[in-house]
Write the structure tokens for this entry.
Amino acid sequence: ALAVCLPVAVGSQGEQPISPHELGRIWDAEHVSPPLPPLVDHPEVVRRLTAIVPDAPDLFTLEKIGESIEGRSINYVRAGDGPLSVLLWSQMHGDESTATSALFDLFDYLRRHRQDPAVTRLLSRLTLHVVPMLNPDGAERFERRNAQSIDVNRDALRLQTPEGRALKSLRDRLNPRVGFNLHNQSWRTSVGSPPKPASISLLSVAYDEARTESAGRKLTKQICAVIRDALEPFAPGQIGRYDDEFEVRAFGDNITLWGTPVVLIETG
């Protein structure tokens, strides 16, 4: 999660706020995410979210932006007050849970290190808008789809799901500059020749079949490159580029089309 946000905060000034190895050391020492992210359920997410605001009320705000079919809350956390608005959402597929836990590591890092120069810059340059666990009903069953048996990530046009409508409404309200669509890839995904397991894959998401490179897509390609450079020491030769085929129904593709260029992150 830190590798996502810090490169965006650095921007074009060329600053190196903190080294990847230092981030790795901090994560080893301080992470709050559990060893088995699939076991993080909706009550655990709600407990963690309702705890972070009292711990740092001047840093985090919490808002309920909708409910799932089965009445589970869909929540949104805001941190920072910078001019560049960033939207991150996780677990729109209920069985893709790694990023949900990683986001709580991000929240705890910001809280513990808010006086550090790198974090001060991040919070002054970015406003982070975070939706952890967009599909709580799917997470309850550890299934890809929601309780309607609809793939929320294929509901960007018809908006049949309350989860999809909540995400679309938040995007339209915030009009963020960049979005991060956080997923888990198949364990069979490989990269390179001879192939190695892909520890993580990145993608600047297309918004049309021609894969047109707009200013927004150029920005997300640059962000992917910075993230790749930050992660390469930890997984050399095992960082992939995800399939960039345009999917007319998908949220990442359409959010890019609607004006918020999206970086797709598929963790292993």
Remarks:
- The longest strand covers residues 60-67.
- The chain has nine helices and ten strands.
